[in-house]
From TrEMBL:
Domain of life from the UniProt record: Eukaryota
PROSITE patterns: PIPLC_X_DOMAIN
Lineage of producing organism: Eukaryota, Viridiplantae, Streptophyta, Embryophyta, Tracheophyta
Gene3D superfamilies assigned: Phosphatidylinositol (PI) phosphodiesterase
A single MF term (Gene Ontology): phosphoric diester hydrolase activity
Organism of this sequence: Oldenlandia corymbosa var. corymbosa
Record-linked InterPro entries: PI-PLC_domain, PLC-like_Pdiesterase_TIM-brl, PLipase_C_PInositol-sp_X_dom
Annotated Phosphatidylinositol-specific phospholipase C X domain residues: 51-192
Protein name per UniProt: OLC1v1018135C1
Cited Pfam families: PI-PLC-X
Biological-process GO terms, alphabetical: lipid metabolic process
Length: 318
């Protein structure tokens, strides 16, 4: 028992030290970057506001959400706090400005996070289609994967094509160099990541797993995650040279050996440092690699930071 208590004391010290490291870095470096003072007048239509004819797919800093469809997962006040990474529906996230959503499914097409379940993926698709019907120039990256430890839903690729066919941007490397205006009226880049089923093939309506990459590490230590994100991002090619999307997740994850297991208090350790991350990308010379930035519990300031840096790229200021 004494050893376990001692371990937890050390863990709390490590978390406190790492949070202070980020606070100190923020105080010394600030959070300014090209476009940091830009705020879209309409987050629901922020791509339209940046001019679809000037906005290239590979120049966008895409605001994304992590474990996007967990707003109603599990049992309220019992299991939900251990798996809920977003409080808003997919539709409301898109209205707020998110343009990349991360959906995990199991064999019966229900959305899940580990062993906890929520609504059918039909709810997600309907939310996406509702948003698309209310906008004209907003493009979405819809990532759907079979959750670890689960089986692929049967014929799920056909289901996605049937549901989203008219909106789907087909898998094609040339997309990365195109503007939004070039792709319209198609609106959805759907990346389907099955565990055992065949991957989508080149030219198909769906995109294969290799087109959306990241270097996720499982930690609840904020500075450790921040530094890992920076390290892996700096090792990527510039966005203008890549033929895939690369994601950085501004999140940390509860650990089984730590008494704090609810998502929100843990991820809040890094949540407020998204602007600092963009600032550091600029100061360390890897801002030209930044592409997808995702978060838990997305808010307006996170969206504005991503859109602001995108605006700076469009205007040739970044």
């Amino acid at each position: 028992m004494g050893a376990q208590v001692s371990k937890q004391v050390e863990r709390r010290k490590a978390i406190s030290t790492e949070k202070k490291a980020l606070v100190d870095l923020k105080q010394s470096s600030g959070i300014d970057f090209p476009g940091s003072d830009y705020h879209p007048t309409d987050r629901k239509n922020w791509m339209l506001g940046l001019d679809p004819g000037k906005l290239h797919i590979n120049k966008i800093v895409w605001p994304g959400t992590h474990d996007s469809a967990t707003n109603k997962i599990g049992i309220p006040c019992i299991s939900r706090p251990f798996a809920q990474c977003q409080s808003l529906s997919i539709y409301k996230q898109l209205v707020r400005g998110a343009r990349v959503v991360d959906i995990r499914v199991q064999e019966d097409r229900r959305v899940c996070h580990g062993i906890l379940l929520t609504y059918s993926v039909d709810v997600v698709i309907n939310d996406v289609k509702k948003f698309l019907s209310e906008t004209q120039s907003e493009i979405i990256i819809l990532e759907i994967r079979t959750e670890f430890g689960h089986e692929d839903p049967p014929e799920f690729d056909k289901y996605l094509e049937d549901q989203l066919g008219e909106y789907l941007i087909h898998q094609d490397d040339s997309v990365f160099g195109k503007t939004i205006a070039d792709l319209l009226p198609k609106r959805v880049i759907c990346v389907w990541k099955p565990r055992k089923s065949p991957q989508p093939k080149p030219g198909s309506p769906l995109w294969s797993a290799g087109y959306l990459k990241d270097n996720w590490i499982d930690t609840d230590l904020p500075s450790t995650k921040f530094e890992s994100n920076m390290k892996h991002l700096s090792q990527q090619q510039p966005v203008t040279s890549r033929k895939f999307f690369y994601r950085v997740e501004n999140t940390v994850t509860p650990q089984a050996d730590n008494p704090v297991l609810c998502v929100k208090p843990v991820t809040n350790r890094i949540h407020g440092f998204a602007r600092l991350f963009i600032n550091q990308c600029c100061s360390k010379g890897c801002a030209d690699r930044l592409q997808i930035l995702s978060t838990d519990f997305i808010d307006e300031d996170f969206v504005d930071a991503c859109v602001g840096f995108t605006y700076a790229r469009v205007e040739g200021k970044a």
